[in-house]
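Cadherin domain-containing protein: structure tokens wanted.
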Amino acid sequence: NVTKVAATDKDGTAPNNRIMFTLDQASQELFTIDSNTGLIKTWAGLDYEMQPSHLIEVIVTDLGSPTNLNSCHVKVHVSDVNDVPPKFNKVSIHFYNFSLTLTLIGLVCWYLYAKDKDSPGSNNSKIVYSLEAANSILLDHLRIHEETGEVTISKPFDYEALVQDSSEHFQFSVLATDMGTPAQSAIINVSLIVADVNDESPEFTKASYSLSIPEDTKNGGCNNYINFSYLYADEAGTDNSRVSYSISRVISASVTEDSFQLNKTTGELQVTSPLDFESLVSSYGEFLVEVVASDSGNPPLRSMANITVRVLDENDETPQFLNDTYTASVPENSPEGKNTLILSSFSRSINSGFS
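Answer:
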């Protein structure tokens, strides 16, 4: 029932004072009226979203002859019922290779917007947003503003930690729920693939290494691998984890970088020119080689390690007299065993003995 109208006719006798109610033609599509009682009812379902109000013309006619009639208008306000769920502007959203590793707390990532066609300003159209995800790790990193649908970073993402615990491919849902009774809701699925950012520098297994090389090592000799294995956390098989090696500098007064060749891929170290222990006596036969490991990411990251090279002394020096010629005078009557001449010689090999 919508409402009931009443009318009177001042004629004193029937049928002149008997009346009948009808509706205008347009209103009859949605409403009916009892011709005797004036009770107005709905004929078809009303939709607030399509038309929130209706203006009905009620016509009252007496049964006399000639017929007299009058009319009035009834304005019907349709009460909004929470029958329309919120609706997102998209069915699903996909973010591929989204770089989240270096994002800051509070950074806005996305706006997810839903609309409810129920009565504006009412609880039926007021929407509250929330996040749902099977992976609790994701909920630790994302936050959604319940009124605006604004998704922000609540905790920085770490690609390496995500891959270790699960994978770089995530799915989560955003739920838009109105505040009507009963509540209506809509859901949008979001696919997210977190991209690796080059935030991990190559890391040598040790900060320093040591190596002993005989000084008579020939060119191309001493094929030593200095165990330049590294610990990395960037995604394997990418430029971020692809490492190359190089010699930064050689700290020595007599040895240069040209004395070594370092394979940039394998870390194989070769001697390219002979090393001389005797020229390194002041440093006890030792010097430092600085090695750099650089990845191929953008921007590239690097780390350094020191190699202490110890050159081993070899008997590679011929003894030498101080003079090329010596002269001595011996009296003819000198006794046996008398010193006649002292010869002086030396060897540049530190640990050599001679007679």
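The chain has a mean pLDDT of 82. The first helix runs from residue 136 to 141.

Cheers.
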